[in-house]
Amino acid sequence: MQLIFCGKKFGLAGTSNVELPPAEPGMYQLDITLRRGTNLAVRDRRGTSDPYVKFKLGGKEIFRSKTVSKNLNPVWEERTSILIEHLREQLYIKVFDYDFGLQDDFMGSAFFDLNSLEQNRPVDVTLSLKDPHYPDQDLGTILLTMLLIPKEQQREETQSVRLSDLHKKTQLWRGIVSITLIEGCGLKAMDSNGLSDPYVKFRLGHQKYKSKIMSKTLNPKWREQFDLHLYEERGGIIDITVWDRDAGKKDDFIGSSISRLCCSYDTDFLEHKIYFFFLTY
């Protein structure tokens, strides 16, 4: 079996060089829970959208949500935590409509001032989405829950650990692998009826994803999109295996492949978009 894929990699901009007034010393943990969106903008011809959310802080992308298909009132309930050194930066939230094979459509953005958070107290925040070019447009709202936790400041002689090293120790990821599983063509027949019930498993480090099962076909069309996180210490190899589902007994192995992600480690954050097709020899 042969795996064919094409991918794009994007390096995002770093922090600004503009000098800001000094902030209080210390370290904070910021917990963000992305709850839901309400009355989001229509971006597809069918009158709906496939929204996902990106969070940026200091010019760097810190989190990207999963994509919710065909929904203007999506429910995410996703949580992330980051370490921050000060509260000077605004949290920047951008919502996009996922478009397979095309540039994703902008659905609105919002800013949040971290200085407004009370420490050690979870706060529900509703943000109105706007388009800077059309500020009067109503693009819906995003509901977040945020919790700011101060970390005890270490003594000066023990503060040689860089923030990037702290990120590694707390297992914060440094990139996103956005995968679209499209279809299979001419897969091997594993059942007595001359067909198979194929599904695909993906593994990147400790993360796993299993596609839906396509019944009685050698030419499945999955059309599934999902995201995995890339951790520096775990390497950039995706293991892909294709299986035939057999009820009541062990599933049959159809084939496997690996995809090695090419990373440029001089960037602060990486995003890969990969499209998978499965073919036989």
What does this structure look like?
This protein is mainly beta and 281 residues long. 2% of the residues lie in helices and 49% in strands. It has one helix at residues 163-169; strands at residues 2-11, 27-38, 51-57, 60-64, 75-84, 90-97, 105-113, 123-128, 141-151, 175-185, 198-204, 207-210, 221-230, 237-244, 252-260, 270-279. The strands form 4 sheets. Strands 1-16-10-13 form a 4-stranded mixed β-sheet, with no helix packed on it. Strands 5-2-9-8 form a 4-stranded antiparallel β-sheet. A hairpin with a 2-residue loop joins β3 (51-57) and β4 (60-64). The longest helix has 7 residues, at 163-169. The radius of gyration is 22 Å and the shape is globular. Residues 1-25, 153-171 and 264-270 have low confidence and may be disordered. Belongs to the MCTP family. GO terms for molecular function: calcium ion binding. This is C2 domain-containing protein.
Summary tags:
281 residues, mainly beta, four-stranded mixed β-sheet, four-stranded antiparallel β-sheet, globular, disordered N terminus, metal-binding, C2_dom
